[in-house]
Amino acid sequence: MRKSVPFDPAEASRSLIYRLEEITGKPIEEILTGGYDGELREKLSKVSLAERELELPLPYLTGRAYFLDLELYVGPGVFIPRPETEVLALTVLDHFDENEPRRILDIGTGTGALAIYLARRFKKAEVTAVDLSPVALRYAEANARKYSLSNIRFVLSDVYGALHGCEKYDLIVSNPPYIPRNELKKADPALSWEPRLALDGGPDGLSVIRKILRGLDCHLTPGGSLFLEISPLIARPLEGLLIPERHDLEFHRDLDGRIRVAHIRRRYP
Ligand SMILES: C[S@@+](CC[C@H](N)C(=O)[O-])C[C@H]1O[C@@H](n2cnc3c(N)ncnc32)[C@H](O)[C@@H]1O
């Protein structure tokens, strides 16, 4: 089992190129071959002004966001996928062969970033993606159509609420809302543009995570894995919610060395 998440410099520079192209409306070749003229300079300063003054995230201006190799539709009302979640996706990839997970559940799918990424990597898997926000699901469905995926379905659901009985999955992933409510006030002002439902993890940041954990016996196959995106702040409290006889826990860190992913494995009975 490999634990490191590889940093892909090509991926990082691709993201930078997309961003420059978006801001300028010009292809990178033109920018690099001396296209940095007065008009271009003016555009760059206008966009950075909008970003600075309004703190409006660029993806809400352009309607596009990038997640690993995906280009996704976004807009106000849906969470903008983040690089931290790319760490989760790559950690999952590190743990499975391409034929391995057959039934995957993504809880709180937002734009569908994780679900779509995994549906493209694990072609034999059936992916279910749930969200409590109908707006988010509209974006997710549009994004799945864009990639012509037939192995993915979207369900409006409060965590497992709308699933049939104890539908079982061998892989569950989630980037749930996990910011403790009182931390939200201190958070980056740019976050105020994003749906509160996507961020607010309740008084201790663990409200949705508790619901996810409570349903594991019913929805996760024995030996199956849950990968959760978390912040270092909630890593230890999360550990306290697990039952050591039933769950194994492993943390994974991001490139800055911060705990970002909790891998919880359901033990065989
Ligand atoms: C932090 S966002 C993550 C979105 C996406 N997975 C990503 O990583 O970009 C959390 C998502 O969980 C959804 N959500 C919040 N509470 C939920 C609940 N009780 N049941 C299902 N989804 C929920 C929000 O609507 C939001 O889309």
Radius of gyration: 19 Å
Give the strand tally: 9
Give the strand line-up of the largest sheet.
5-4-3-6-7-9-8
The percentage of residues in β strands lies in 15-25%
Tell me the distance between the termini: 22 Å
The CATH architecture of the largest domain would be 3-Layer(aba) Sandwich
The portion of residues assigned to helices is 25-40%
Sequence of secondary-structure elements: HHHHEEHEHEHEEHHHEHEE
- The third-level CATH topology of the largest domain is Rossmann fold
Mean pLDDT, to the nearest integer, reads: 88
Bound molecules: S-adenosylmethionine
Uncertain stretches of 5 or more adjacent residues = 1-9
CATH C-level name of the largest domain? Alpha Beta
Brief overview, please?
This protein has 269 residues and is α/β, with parallel strands linked by helices. Helix content is 39%, strand content 20%. Bound molecules: S-adenosylmethionine.
